[in-house]
Amino acid sequence: MTTPTETSSYLGKPLDGWRLKLFTIIFEADTRAGRLFDQCLIFAILVSVAVVAMGSVGAVADRVGIWFEVLEWVFTLLFTAEYVARLLCVRHPMRYALSFYGVIDLLALLPTYVALLVPEVSALIDVRVLRLLRVFRVFKLTAYVQEYQALARALAASRRKISVFLSAVLMIVLVMGTLMYVVEGPVNGFTSIPTSVYWAVTTMTTVGFGDITPKTDLGRFIASCMMLLGWGTLAVPTGIVTSEMASLRGAPAPATTRTCHECLTEGHLPEARYCLHCGAHLSPYFRDIP
Amino acid sequence: MTTPTETSSYLGKPLDGWRLKLFTIIFEADTRAGRLFDQCLIFAILVSVAVVAMGSVGAVADRVGIWFEVLEWVFTLLFTAEYVARLLCVRHPMRYALSFYGVIDLLALLPTYVALLVPEVSALIDVRVLRLLRVFRVFKLTAYVQEYQALARALAASRRKISVFLSAVLMIVLVMGTLMYVVEGPVNGFTSIPTSVYWAVTTMTTVGFGDITPKTDLGRFIASCMMLLGWGTLAVPTGIVTSEMASLRGAPAPATTRTCHECLTEGHLPEARYCLHCGAHLSPYFRDIP
Amino acid sequence: MTTPTETSSYLGKPLDGWRLKLFTIIFEADTRAGRLFDQCLIFAILVSVAVVAMGSVGAVADRVGIWFEVLEWVFTLLFTAEYVARLLCVRHPMRYALSFYGVIDLLALLPTYVALLVPEVSALIDVRVLRLLRVFRVFKLTAYVQEYQALARALAASRRKISVFLSAVLMIVLVMGTLMYVVEGPVNGFTSIPTSVYWAVTTMTTVGFGDITPKTDLGRFIASCMMLLGWGTLAVPTGIVTSEMASLRGAPAPATTRTCHECLTEGHLPEARYCLHCGAHLSPYFRDIP
Amino acid sequence: MTTPTETSSYLGKPLDGWRLKLFTIIFEADTRAGRLFDQCLIFAILVSVAVVAMGSVGAVADRVGIWFEVLEWVFTLLFTAEYVARLLCVRHPMRYALSFYGVIDLLALLPTYVALLVPEVSALIDVRVLRLLRVFRVFKLTAYVQEYQALARALAASRRKISVFLSAVLMIVLVMGTLMYVVEGPVNGFTSIPTSVYWAVTTMTTVGFGDITPKTDLGRFIASCMMLLGWGTLAVPTGIVTSEMASLRGAPAPATTRTCHECLTEGHLPEARYCLHCGAHLSPYFRDIP
Fold first, then answer.
1. Which of A193, A196, A245, C95 registers the highest number of CB atoms within 10 A of its CB?
2. Which residues cross the membrane (chains A, B, C, D) (predicted)?
3. From the candidate CATH numbers 1.20.120.350, 1.20.1440.20, 3.10.560.10, 1.20.1050.10, the one assigned to the domain spanning A4-144
4. Domain A159-249 bears CATH identifier 1.10.287.70
5. What is the per-residue burial (b if ≥16 Cβ within 10 Å, else e) of A218-228?
6. Interface check C206 vs A, CB under 8 A
7. Measured between CB atoms, does C133 come within 8 Å of chain D?
8. CATH 1.10.287.70 in chain D, residues?
9. CB-CB neighbors (< 8 A) of B197 in chain C
10. What is the ipTM metric for this complex?
């Protein structure tokens, strides 16, 4: 559809005319048109995900399966058109294609096309739900995102503690799984060390499916110790998150969805003239008076 | 029972005589009669709920089922009489009927009558238990409610964080459920995407029923990651609630159950002369010397 | 063994001679003899509990059951002798018999004797383990108890919040259980409302046994909502305990096990001359130089 | 391999020449060689653990089992050589052999040799994963360990609270298990008191395997109470850890892996001249300029 020669003529050139307009609508959400576009997009994603989920239910698929397939292709073509539009209106298409949202947008399209060759992957169309991460962009101007960023900062701040904690948990789980494999053995369902480790994770996280359970007295004793140990251990992430949240309270959130044409960084202030990330000159800012 | 003409003659008129008396008894709990009424009401609700619950046990129903049906109708008629009395003694019956407690009071009556036509709903009579929310009114003068309000404020304060968190959890659960549907497939019990999502919720919340469990090695590996991820994720609400509770400590609670005749707002101070919500003139305050 | 005439002659008289000595050994733990007595007692309780627990294992009972029965009677007679000694050496035997520890001491003896008539209760001998609460007395001089009291104070301080929380949880569980009973019905294992409520508790507390599970799509949807709701709700007690623990930090613990002869209150300071609870004159204090 | 006469001639003598060099490489991680050694060691441990785990999977073992056995012996001989090298280059071999890491290093070797006689223990080779604790040494210079020590300090600080809490939980679990054994009995799967206690632990920690579940109404009622009680009780460790973590924030971590030749204490400052633990004279410090 977009042949290299067509798009390459635009590459790297400053955005103006219809490309600037399209960019403002598709990438930003501060004008009325931009907000409307994002809301339609989110609605389309939700319906499309619901269609795929419903289509997997046997009874439903038998009755209206053909309509679902049609709907599904409609959505896929719509999203493909949107993806192409995004590529067209940014200054450096590759930079968008390799960005976080760019990869997700592509991943949301691929399964439908791949399913033509390998039918089994058709269910993966549901990764489309990841596109809903855009939902936070629409609400960016509201206070929701402030909370979202507090969460992200809290997790980033405890990144190291979490690594140490996870490696400790993995060691405990591996040793305990091996021990149970030796004690219970394949006869009681602990068929291999990986299976025993899976059981140990199930037990330590207090999920406890019950598909594999210790049968011997010694095994049950070890399992009891593991559960008590597990609770103590798993109080740690709660402690980490809680103490981080208590110390991280409400830094102000970016006020706009204004997006740099060069590096696609978001959240520039209305009065900003240069990108705070790459230093590129920012184009004039379009925003409806609220 | 209460024909429109009967009640409409009272509509909007200030309460006096027996209506004022009845209002003070039924809606407020600061006089001895008002407190006694509320206590009898709560006792009746508890017994009525117990009767419905017991009536669903096969062995009990066979022996004394007929008595339970009689008791059940006695309670329903009692509650109907109370509902009518409430409608009669308030100044704007519709305003009460559409208020939070008014809707619950009606919902507690309907199932018995509806069950005459559609027998299956008879168990729903147990929504009657929601009327027990009134229990907090009786204790309103005690310190219990202060704690209750602290909880409500804590939840209201973290409303936004909780929305962001819930939407993130729903996305994870949807993507993970779809992934497991592809990996495990209908053969291993993951019969459709909704079923797989149900399994994912079961796993992430560490409930782990075990009615559906992964059987393949890859599925078990993904499930193990989900459980560890789930614990980390679900430490967040605990962190939210804890940090909110730490910052919200003990604002004083309303001291009375005095209720505005116009808008049914509660908790006016004994010395108040006008409703703090709608500005209406309050009638003199009746209260037993404690 | 202790006829009324024998003991009544001592009743209410100040303790002296062997009764004072015995009182110091049995009730206090600040002298070497007192500490030794408590340690032997705890050892005896532990062994006795282990004997009862082991005796319930079929394979073990078949081989050495007769010895366990003998041991069990030896312990019961020992504990009976101790109970009588306690009654003998306190000033007001009834006050001891009705005190917290007095009731537990009696409860630990009764099952063996009652089991002579009603053999089924013999397993209840294990309530004997409650006597281990005395273990905290031995460590009273150490810092352990300070922590223990901090826990107790934290729980007492959040007593009201916990009541409100529990009543809210009970309402949710009752309404949800009823709803699932209507939706799933006896065919899918929800045989009665009490059973459905048991299932709802299982689900809300994230235990998730899996003996009863929803089978219909609607039931699974409601169950998913309940699990998410349950996690949110159950973050509250953690929040309560955590915020209480953060505000309650280390008040000094009682320094002795010195016990008032009148009202059996413990923890009087070495230099105290009158009971801080009932104002009775305290007898001189016996304590080994550590 | 290392005959007593060979090694004893070195015993207690100050380290110099190749022994000092070897000591710096094996025990410390501040030089390039030392860091490389530790990284290879960790890689070898990871591969070796993976080999043992994979070897337990039936399908894999059938195909490439012989190679795994060979690999396994290669790793064991490597680790044996390393263990001997460690013994050779420390001043007091016994002190190392009895230290924490010394015991783990030996435990990681033994199962392979013992498995020659008793084949069942071969799976225990996976205790080798405990050697990964050394991984924290490599990262000692990074900030990871600061977090790790904060965790360790938090756990050590709440040591006493945790003991009191654990003993309380054990008592509750024992009494509840006994009660359920009496109420449900062997017919419903509660075959003995230890089994019932195992079930009680399963329930209180919210794991809920579901291999044993109450069948009677009374049993289900008690189980429901236990679950609610369990949640309340298990909020305590979370509260303990959280409040400890909030009060313990970031004391600086030791900056080196410099190890005393006498007592094997780690973390001496670059400028230190005497061991801070045993007062021995420290040898000059080798460190690459970063």
1. A196
2. 40-60, 66-85, 97-118, 163-183, 221-240
3. 1.20.120.350
4. yes
5. ebbbbbbebbb
6. yes
7. yes
8. 159-249
9. 224
10. 0.76
